[in-house]
Amino acid sequence: MTNIRTRFAPSPTGLLHIGGARTALFNFLLAKKEPDGAFILRVDDTDMERSKPEYERGIMEDLRSLGLDWDEGPDKGGDYPYRQSERAHIYNEVFDSLRKNASVYPCFCSEERLDALRKDQAAAGAAPRYDGLCRHLARTEIDARIAKGEKPCWRFAMPDKTILFHDEIRGDLSFSPESIGDFVAVRGDGCPTYIFTSPIDDHYMKITHIIRGDEHIPNTARQQALLDRLDWPAPVYAHIPMILSQDRQKLSKRTGSVPIRRYMDDGLSPEALSAYLSTLSWTSPELLLNIFKESRDARELLLKMAGLFSFENVSRSSPVHDEAHLIYWQKESIKKQGTDKVYWQLVKAEPRFGVLPPEVLEKIIDESVSEFYTLPMLTDALLPLVERPLVPRLSEPWAEALSEVLAGVEHWNSESVNNALRSFMKGRGLKGKEFFHPLRLALTGRESGAPLPLLMAALGREETAKRAGHGKTDLSRP
């Protein structure tokens, strides 16, 4: 039996987003389902104008950060060039063979004509397709137009028969000759197109399975026709449903798509991201939570997920991108790390935290991670412990009375401080917001944060007095 070989083939024209990351994840999981499976990274950089080396590097960095390392690729050993820009000789050979048997033909149609054709088809409720105007041009006319300096594109002549292929998620699919027009294989500037190059690369790289978004299904029909013409075997196809925005539109920058890099820069863990991506059409949160808790790191989680992956469990319906679900997995991730690990991460991120009593900081961490669920968020929330805010001192009518109450707290710890605050608020008939908001602002300079009694206990009696600035009463007494 042939070993599974999957590929992720991004175009380096932008950053890695949710949809691409999920496609890479599913291809990785299928490859790692068996010991000798291979996950290949191929860079589809036929769009020379928009492809940038920095985007390629960024995509590779993001994939590695997620734990989706590849077995073959541009920066690793293998039997092939892994950038399409390095494979032009292969495309030229295939193109020449297609020209010889009249499987491709030159098309001189202008962009204006093609735009008008698409508009007319849309108005008639028909799918956009090339009408074949140039398919039967005489050889003499072709030669004359080229001699005049016209630079045609070259279209693949689709067969006059139904195109059939099997999809592991959707079953048998068929496309009539009328539904798909002759596609451009090589542009007027001589650059081959994605539709033309991708199946050629898949064939020569011995790709056995192709997992990609269902928006590519029409492309698959065109590529299947090309494979049939070349008498090449087809890979196994699996088209996963498109991810939608909250308002059930195609996910885009405008509708809420966020680069994976942004999530990681914000402190979300690779485990949380991989877990979330896997629930977009595949596994259930209940099943995933068990192996999530058992896994020691992101790599172990991925391998456990690979053991469970199957096409039978991939849904046909489009999932909705919901950051609340992503945050759920991040909270599970930071909870699984444990207080001790988070403590040392905090001290490494902000060495000044090291002067605080460990037991006090650990207690604050325990009480705060449900709200501040990433290391940057937690670090920022706890900065008032080591940075005195530049804000006005407490000036409410009850400020001096509160200072006297706090001065009488015998044991300065979070429980005693909390009891004193609650008793004072109740005795004065104050509401929580009108009492705690100005007090927190004076002590921390923040509108929100970790529980105030915990922060006050960590600040200590003297620092609390300095920040509140209560005037006559000195809270710094032993």
Features:
single chain; 478 residues; mainly alpha; Rossmann fold; Glutamyl-tRNA Synthetase, domain 3; Arc Repressor Mutant, subunit A; three-stranded antiparallel β-sheet; elongated
Poorly predicted ranges: 470-478
Helix content: 40-55%
Oligomer: single chain
Radius of gyration from CA coordinates: 31 Å
CATH level 1 class label of the domain at 5-74 and 195-240? Alpha Beta
Number of helices: 19
CATH architecture assignment name of the domain at 5-74 and 195-240: 3-Layer(aba) Sandwich
Q: What's the order of the H and E elements?
A: EHEHHEHHEEEEHEHEHHHHHHHHHHHH
Shape: elongated
Sheet with most strands: 3 strands, antiparallel
CATH homologous superfamily grouping of the domain at 5-74 and 195-240:
HUPs
- Tally of extended strands? 9
- Amino-to-carboxy terminus distance: 78 Å
Explain what you see:
By secondary structure, the protein is mainly α. Among the domains are: 116 residues, Rossmann fold (3-Layer(aba) Sandwich); 95 residues, Glutamyl-tRNA Synthetase, Domain 3 (Glutamyl-tRNA Synthetase, domain 3), CATH 3.90.800; 81 residues, Arc Repressor Mutant, subunit A (Orthogonal Bundle). The chain is built from 19 helices and nine strands. The strands form four sheets. The protein has a three-stranded antiparallel β-sheet. The protein has a two-stranded parallel sheet with strand order 1-2. Strand 5 and strand 6 form a beta hairpin. It is elongated and about 105 Å long. 34% of the residues are buried. The C terminus is likely disordered.
